Each structure stands twice: as C-alpha cells, then as structure tokens.
Predict the structure.
Amino acid sequence: MSRTEAPAARPSESAPDTARRGLMLALATIGFAVNFWAWALLSPLAVKFQAALGLSSFQQALLVAVPVVVGSLGRIPVGALTDRFGGRIMFPLVSLATVVPVLFLGLFGHDSLAALLVGGFFLGIGGTAFAVGVPFVNAWFPPERRGLAVGIFGAGMGGTAISALTTVRLVNLGTTATPFVLTAVVLVGYATVAWLLLRDAPDRVVPSAPLAQRLGAALRLRVTWQAAALYAVAFGGYVAFSVYLPAYLKTAYGLTPADAANRMAGFVLLAVVMRPVGGWLADRFAASRVLAVALGVVIAGAVAQAFTPGLAPAGTVAFLAMAAALGAGSGATFALVAQLAPASQVGSVTGVVGAAGGLGGFVPPLVMGVIYGHFQSYALGLALLGVVALAALLLDVLSVGRHPAAARS
C-alpha cells in the first residue's frame, strides 16, 4: 500500500481494529523492554565484579560487551525466523530461552570471570527480541504510521534503564542473585501472557523460501547496508554508552557506582523518549533529514566531551544532547527500513540492521577500555566517535537522502 492510497483505507478502520493494534504494540513493547532488562543485567554490576575479581579495564569492558555481540549477531537468524513463524511464537520462545542464563548468572555464575563470560554469552539471547518486534509491529500498521509505531516499540530499549535503576539497589537489599531471580520471574510471566494474548497481523506476508535464501535476498538489498551503517552509529552509540557510561563516569569524574548508574539511567531514558519522536518525525519529514540533524548533534557532543569538561553543566549537556540525538536517529533509521524494505523481508532486513547496531555497541567499550589502559584518558575514544558519526552523516546525505522514499518531504 502506497502513501497516496493510505487516506482511502483509514475510514474502513474500526475502533476494534485500532484497539487491537494498540494492544499488540503494547505487548510487543513490553516484551522488548523485559528482554532488554535481562540483556543489560551485567552492566550495572561491572564495577562490583571488577573489584571482587580483580579485573583489568579490558576484562571489565569485555564482560559487558559479550552479551551485546551475541544479542546482535543472533538477531540475523531470529529476524528471519520471525518472518517465517511470526511474533506470537518467537516472543515467548526468546523470553523463555533468556531465563536460563539469567538464573545461571544469578545463582551460580558470578564467582569467576569465565563463568560470567559464559553466562553473558547466552544472556545475549535477550537482545535478539528486537528482531522479533520490528517485523511483528510493522505488519500490524499501514506504511504512513509505521515510523511512529516502530519508534514506540523501540522505546522498549528502556529496559536497560530498568536494569540501571534497580540492579545495584536490589543487590544491596538482598544478594547478588536477587535482581537475576526477579528478572527471570518477570520473563516467565511475560512469556505466558504473550502466548495467551499475542497475535500476528491477519494480513502478514509469510515467506515460503528457505531461511538461507531469504537472508541472501535481504543482503542484496541496498537499504539493508545503508540502514545497517547508520544504525551501527545511532543505536550502537546508545548501546555503547548504556553499558560503558557507569565505568566512564566513575573513572573520569570519580562518581560512586550508584550515582554513575543513575546518570546512565537518565541518558537511557532520554534516548528512549526520543526514539518514537524520531520515528514520528520521519513519518512527516525526510527520514534522511532527521538522521542528518541527529548525527550532527552527536558529532558536536562527542567533540565537546573529548575535552572532558566539568560534569555540570557542560558534560551533562553534551551527554544528554547525544542521548536525544542517538534515540531520534535510531527511530528514524527503522522508519527508513519500514518504508523501503519489502513486506516479506522486514524481519530479515531488521535482523541484519539490528545486528549492525548491536555490533556498533560492542566495539566502542572495548576500544575505550584499551585506550584508557594505554593513555589514562578517554579523549581519543570520544574523538573517534565524532569521526565515525561524520562518516555516517556523509553516507546519509550523499546516498540515503537521494532515495525518493527516504527523501520525501
């Protein structure tokens, strides 16, 4: 259905149809948030584990990065499987699979680096929920509303904020196992509700081709690689800050772990709020223009923070500006995918693009850890972020912005 055909279809939409779409969107968003909560459990405790196990800065960065890379690469097959089997099956399946590493880490696997890395590897399953939700939500909404709908779903990435706000407090109130056991209970509860209430869109396009063939077709689409590069910077930057910001603030500004986690939660919440805003703007203006503005803000914020200004107000302004830009840019990127990807391939494209975003979040924490270990400064790492954002801006302006659907006004 094209954008010019959409107004004619709206009168046929009944109130029950609208309510059902809203319910499906809400359930998918909650599922994304719950799985992302589990996915981010190790980050707030990284400083605690570093002190208890005597980890180096690189080992600490590796600990929080492993779930990110697994969750990212896992999105490729999970997105393709969602195209075939739908979100009603895949959401409960991913949620229940995530329960196993969550309980392992909480009950047995937090006394050594090796156990933490093994648990963190399988904890990455929670990060694949993103590749389930995008094609699921995309199928429920018409093209002219997909940017906002997928942006609202993307706000489920705020599950990392739940982790940041609660994990350390729950450990202090109970034991190391407490936040993990609580998260496992919530995951089981969500999987049950999703199985009972979640339904795939009645007009969902179900591909018949084998998984490998569908992935190959998605990889041949130009939009797949363009969106992957942009998402690697936008969402990758968000993930990198959400997992490494507590360690950065503790080292660069001497904050306590609890204060650093709270500030990271503020960063995450702002990015979460701005993600649907970015999708909404992309529905109304050129998606490439929304991305261009967002990337410009990231460049300015990264350059400013490279000089490690005082945390109040310059550092706070720089980080919050980058949070808003990264959130809006992430929403605009998937508005682009919803607009340009064929309906039967949205899951496959989402998997590849989502993997790029997660991998974009995997590399920076490792780079920052290595740079700080050698130079006792984060300036070079933040300058590199500015350079990468500039490259993405050039790709957006010179390539994506030339596509008629991406550049419409």
About this structure: The chain has 18 helices and no strands. The first helix runs from residue 6 to 9. The CA atoms of residues 187 and 250 lie 31 Å apart. Residues 1-12 have pLDDT under 50 and may be disordered.
